[in-house]
Amino acid sequence: MTIKQTYFYHPTSYETNECVIASFEQRNIPMQRIQQSLGRKKRFILDRNSTETTLTMATKAAKGALKECGLHIEDIDVIALVSATPELLVPSASIKLHQMLNAKKKTMCFDLNANCIGAFIALDQLTKYLQCTPNMQRALIVCAENLCRIVDNNNPITAFCFSDSAFAFILDKDGESIGLKDVMYHTDSDIADTVSYPPAGFSQFKNEDVLVWDRSFDGMGSVDFIKKELLLFLERNKMSVEDIDLFMFSQFSYKNVQLIKEYFNLGDDKVPFYSHELGYTGSSSPFLALDQYQRRVRKIKQGEQILFWTLGAGYEAGLMLWEY
């Protein structure tokens, strides 16, 4: 099983954080510590007047991935659209994506919303599905978010956190690469109310609703999870930290990534971080790190060991061991 191709699409419009920081500091809200913690300089945003949507972005990302690896949409057996901000609920956004790509009728389509751990779960589940389904060969997983549309611009964390974008990757049952070796999940629903949208649920939805983000939620629970479980996770696979070639972590918080690096004594060259210039893209973020690393640094070789770690609001975290 191999991640055959990745492709990142983003709108042309963007925002730097200087003006956001200045507006908060004029209200005596210190922002430098938050900025240093999250690690953001620039974010891509969909203009309010733009005709672009999560669905059009998803289509462009999917077409880009197919084109770069020389496949056609007829080669795809499964389409999964991962989003917390889908353009449609009925029909599912993946059905509309199927239509826009002119995909074959013998295609399984589904949407998945697990917030920022969504792509991680989609990769886990579809790897296992392809492995046990003889007549299914390839899956197209597309992440698309327009989170800037629902954020609270008066919240210093969400005001400059997210990037609107789409990210596609193709999963191929190639018969050569091992792919998924192991996965571990950790869910703590005691803090499920710290991040929410709509705040009171769809039954009480208002047009002016924005994403509620309690500033106490900083992802540290997921940092504690990896500190506690990583060595045991690797040990059950007869591996050590030194056996991992690359660590593809959630790009949500620069501070959290640094804490993990320091705890396990990981080198900068093994833990790429790209949210400074790309912003935080939600569920795609650890896989976007994989994409950017291969485009900017080097191609990953067959047999290299990759460790994914990420988290989603609520919260849920995961570790994944993947052999390229």
TrEMBL record:
Annotated Gene3D superfamilies: 3.40.47.10
GO biological process: fatty acid biosynthetic process; secondary metabolite biosynthetic process
Beta-ketoacyl-[acyl-carrier-protein] synthase III C-terminal domain segment(s): 234-324
Keyword terms, alphabetized: Acyltransferase, Transferase
Pfam families linked: ACP_syn_III (PF08545), ACP_syn_III_C (PF08541)
Statement: the UniProt record of this protein carries the keyword Acyltransferase: yes
SUPFAM superfamilies membership: Thiolase-like (SSF53901)
Top-level division of the source organism's lineage: Bacteria
Gene Ontology molecular functions: 3-oxoacyl-[acyl-carrier-protein] synthase activity
Residues annotated as domain Beta-ketoacyl-[acyl-carrier-protein] synthase III N-terminal: 110-188
Annotated PANTHER family: 3-OXOACYL-[ACYL-CARRIER-PROTEIN] SYNTHASE 3, BETA-KETOACYL-[ACYL-CARRIER-PROTEIN] SYNTHASE III
Name this protein carries in UniProt: 3-oxoacyl-[acyl-carrier-protein] synthase 3
Organism: Myroides odoratimimus CIP 101113
The organism's taxonomic lineage, starting at the top: Bacteria, Pseudomonadati, Bacteroidota, Flavobacteriia, Flavobacteriales
